[in-house]
Design brief:
Layout (H helix, E strand, L loop, with lengths): L10 H10 L8 H14 L11 H8 L3 H23 L7 H27 L4 H12 L6 H12 L15 H26 L10 H20 L1 H25 L27 H6 L6 H6 L21 H18 L1
Helix pairs in contact: 1-2, 1-4, 1-5, 2-13, 4-5, 4-6, 5-6, 5-7, 5-10, 7-8, 8-10, 9-10, 10-13
Length: 337
């Protein structure tokens, strides 16, 4: 029964469905719920710092329901992507209503496409990884897996990591640096992996080559089947999802640095090299992503087993509220500059 709380993610497709089938302010319902109602409720709900006991963790690790819930998000994401491609063509929509529907799809790209894709991309089974890759493809962010697993987890909390925000770094500039540099690093990591096995970069086992082809195939298919306007709308939705991901990246390691020894080697990744949040609604909606400190301490640990420990730096509020604050603050700073 403990796994069922993660079905709360179904709130997202419900409010997105309302957005896709309504007019007026209801088209903005996904943003209102996830960046208004959820942060508001978290002000009144005590953070959950409880962890499984060793025996509970053993039992819950074998509970397949946690994984089945992740699997179920794939058809959900694909159905709503198709639904979006039709809903955005409805005649008579105002600019505000178009924005509401596009951003609703963008939230799905971030919460389900990228976040669940990230979780499954850490799994050792190829089938799980494939589902993660398809989810990431719906957000045009497939390069995330090679860089995240081979670069971010290795270099986190160091200047070498594109996805670690520096202290006082402007969020808008971080978006560009993190996304562009992680894309370049993903190609480098794949080239290095292939060279180690005596293959050149232009090889069918180059994941970045396959990912890039699939991205063009998806965008090209949408363009030829639905036209330019729908294609541009999808691109904006995908970019919105990527921006939400990068904003989460910004707060997850902001200003944290690992120590170096006299030889310049960095200390091992510890639980104090990522910000932790125990706010319960964010935990459920994001599959424990907010317990990020333990995730980086042990990247292969399944989401339901992640712990909250006192040595981890604690965020005063949950992820949605921090996303709001970061975007607003950086917008003000960037505008003043």
């Amino acid at each position: 029964m403990k796994s069922l709380k993660y079905l709360s993610v179904l709130i997202l497709p419900i409010v997105v469905y309302i957005s896709f089938t309504s007019k007026g302010w209801l088209t903005h319902l996904p943003a209102i719920v996830f960046f208004g109602l959820v942060p508001f409720l978290e002000l009144f709900i005590q953070p959950n710092k409880e962890n499984f006991t060793a025996e509970e963790a053993r039992i819950e690790k074998e509970n397949k329901n946690y994984t089945y819930i992740l699997y179920a998000t794939l058809p959900l994401q694909l159905i709503f992507l198709g639904f979006f491609l039709y809903a955005i063509q409805e005649t008579g929509l105002t600019t505000s209503e178009l924005v509401g529907r596009i951003f609703g799809m963008g939230i799905m790209c971030s919460v389900i496409g990228i976040n669940v894709g990230h979780e499954l991309g850490h799994r050792p089974h190829r089938g799980d990884q494939l589902i993660g890759e398809i989810l990431l493809l719906t957000s045009l962010n497939t390069h995330f897996l090679p860089y995240h697993n081979g670069g971010h987890h290795l270099h986190v909390a160091t200047p070498k990591d594109a996805a670690t925000a520096r202290k006082n770094e402007i969020l808008f500039l971080f978006w560009i640096r993190s996304h562009c540099m992680s894309y370049v690093q993903a190609w480098r990591l794949e080239n290095k992996r292939l060279q180690a096995s005596g293959r050149n970069w232009f090889h069918p086992q180059n994941r970045m080559l396959i990912y890039t082809f699939c991205n063009f195939l998806l965008v090209g298919g949408i363009y030829f089947l639905f036209g330019k306007f729908v294609c541009i709308s999808f691109l904006i939705a995908a970019i919105s999802g990527i921006i939400l991901l990068e904003t989460v990246n910004y707060i997850e390691h902001y200003g944290l640095l690992r120590k170096q020894d006299v030889n310049g080697r960095y200390e091992k990744v510890k639980r104090n090299h990522s910000w932790n949040s125990d706010h319960q609604i964010g935990q459920m909606l994001l599959f424990n992503l907010s317990r990020h400190s333990d995730h980086h301490y042990n990247g292969s640990k399944q989401y339901q087993l992640l712990k909250s420990l006192p040595e981890s730096p604690q965020m005063p509020t949950g992820y949605p509220r921090h996303d709001d604050s970061c975007i607003f603050t950086s917008f003000v700073v960037f505008s003043d500059a």
